[in-house]
Amino acid sequence: MQLAIIGAGQAACTLIAELVRGNFEGHITVFNGEGITPYQRPPLSKTPIENSLSPERNQLLPPQVLTDPRITWINMPVDTLDPDTGEVTAGNTTQDFDHLVIATGTRAIRPSIPGLADEDLQVMRTWTDRLKLAAATHNARHVSLIGAGFMAFELAASLCHPDREIRILARGPRALPQTSAETASWLIKHSAASVLTHCSVEGFEASTQTLQTNQGSIPTDCIIATVGSTPNVELLTPHGLADADGITVDALMQTPHPRVSAIGEVCRHHHPSLDRTVRIESISEANDTATVLAKRLLGQPMAFHAVPWFWSDQGTQKLQIAGLANRDDEAEILTADDTRQVVLRHQDGHITAVEAVNAATEFMAARRLFERGDIRLQAVRKVGSVMAVLQSSRS
Amino acid sequence: MPHVLFVDPNEAEIEAPFTAGDTLLHAAQHAGVDGILAECGGGCSCATCHVILNPSWDGQIESPSAQETDMLTFAIEPTPHSRLACQVILRDAHDGLRVQVAKRQY
Q1: pLDDT tens digit string along A104-133?
Q2: Taking the model in full, what pTM does it have?
Q3: Predicted ipTM?
Q4: B45 touches chain A (CB under 8 A)
Q5: Nearest C-alpha of chain B: how many angstroms from A215?
Q6: Within 10 A of A277 (CB to CB), how many other CB atoms are there?
Q7: Residue B106 pLDDT > 90
Q8: CA of A333, closest CA in chain B: separation in Å?
């Protein structure tokens, strides 16, 4: 089989590693549009900006996989593809494939800010972004992060410096809407940044180095947009296989077209553990979808069944989330002291997510319990710890 | 160059060179050691880079943090010498360290 993998991020690399490990009988061609040896992305936002990272020290694949003779690496973005014929065109080369895997991931949204040249707007998604941000923040005294999600708080911690003022601008009523208000409060309290809510950006005034907002002028010599990302679906949109929120696939990562599969952050599928169809951006999603596809390509199909999990390092604070709550799910603090906090998200008596700050055992216990099925709110309330529920279920 | 000797789940031995400051995970990945998943890429968030240090090195390697100890309770059959490879920082003095990769990460 001639297999084309478009993209070389976490999902693509997990797929490649699993296919190599499973002695895949075919040839793999990887289109790596970024042109950099595949690297780990989490450290880009989570590592202090003054610490130099290098792609070589953060490689996603071991050397023997990178040099495996069954794999051809093409350091070029794909221009067009044709699912019906399997034709992929990159630059002036066109090749035919038996199967196409779309692992193109997402890209940072770049809002347009009047008065600010696009090249002066920082984002964080790629190796190049990190290098640009390191240069742009080298002497920066007033950093404004537009958008108040995990990325903003990770970068605020990574940019923390005694001579630097960092602001996070939230358009809505509060920061970190992905978590409960209780978890958000904890993280805001421990963040180096100050948070402004209901704040909308109107423009940038270069002569005074100020960001114009509905709440007045904010001194700013570095602007970082952390307003989220958008899936890279352009190759499939013309073929009716994608919309603005991604590529829909089944439980085996197959699109409606028999020749095309999609994995990672670009795909949207039904999550049995959540009982809904969503597109998720996380390492676990990249790895789990890639593993499902690898098994299918190796002739041992197994439907997607994993439970999503997330983590965010924000300086000394470590947030870990097992499961995925709906935004309107209830929230209650299970335990909290000076160093840690655990929040339960729930709906109709069932736990939908466990948000743990500096509480790894509660996070891991929740993952294990979710993998087996349901976690009842009453059971956890009764014993006051997710770990205790896990232990009692083992005995 | 100093090196670590990994023993993978199939008992194959792999010499992994390192530079002081590298993590044990980095050395293992660079040498292509089998059996380490490291799903979170070295963030102490998944407990799938479980290794067991040779007991003769007791006291010569910095102790695990509370976070790592918590995560290790979820490794498969942890021992008193278990570590998460992503959290062990190597120094030149660790030349010759012998490390068993856990039989299973799940």
Answers
A1: 999 999 999 999 999 999 999 999 999 999
A2: 0.95
A3: 0.89
A4: yes
A5: 37
A6: 10
A7: no
A8: 20
